[in-house]
Amino acid sequence: MLRNGLPESWHFGAAAVVTPEGRLVARLGDPADLAAATFLRSAAKPFQILPLLLAGGAERFSLDDADLALICASHSGGEEHVARAAALLAKGGFTAGDLLCGAHPPFGREEARRLRRQGIAPTPLHNNCSGKHAGMLLACRHLGLAKEDYVSPDHPLQRLILARVAQATGVPAEQIGLGVDGCSVPAFRLSVVAAARGYAALADPAAAGLPADVAAAIRRAVAAMAARPEMIAGPGRFTTRLIATTGGRVVGKEGAEGFYGVAVRGPVALGIALKVADGGERCRDGAVLDLLRQMGSLAGAELADLADFYRPVLRNLRDLAVGEVRPEAELEEVEAGACLG
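^ thats the sequence. predicted structure below, dont judge the formating
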């Protein structure tokens, strides 16, 4: 962070850029270091939807792009998000009382203000993960699994999800660290380079060598995210703006504690993962854009459209511009070599 052009604070982190075939092509720091491994948190959502899609749940419950996008979302808790989460539950005969994600105020500032003005207490439907949890309940209904404690790592659905994370990242399931996420489902701990490999699989699952049915399910999920970016986050938020500005060619997903994953679908397919070491999010969005810039994955006009995230201006209590957050980390090119395995 710069104040009047002079450095005041620094953030450090690690990043990896991986091809769908599994080759590390660029890095920041040592993203393969397991000592610096991290949890994907909500960036795992595009993988957590896969058991539902593979089992034909989208067809059974007539799920459209907006439905699938919400299942992959960390949404802002807007009226459309809440209504669609409730509708998803209804498709399986569930109610908000079946959600095990807990309640918190909406992520969106305007949405949170609206609830406060109306004197309405947040419900689990306002939780940014309510779409994901509704999708998990639909998967349980479709697969004939118990809804009780569907968030437990021992639940059959969560074991299916772990297997898909392992398949996409190339890390054996028994080597993936498990924790409990903020919404109570399992959280997956991986090296930054393994996370980037997973996002490369989202960018081009066929090139990643995934089976045809898994590749088709991934393409369906990513296409929905690309088509309905407003469901993935919300108005004014970075992930929605990134997807919308690039027309879905670049699909990103945030995770808590300074993690971000990006699937670059073209012209050169890549997976990018970034972890901010201190867990802060102040510098995360600008760093993601700078990584995309360095890899040639953003057009100049796209970067210009996202300039408010690239070098955000800091203002004091009188709304005076007093500084900016500026990304200054240069990727190191990795010489061609063996694929990750």
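The first strand starts at residue 2 and ends at 3.
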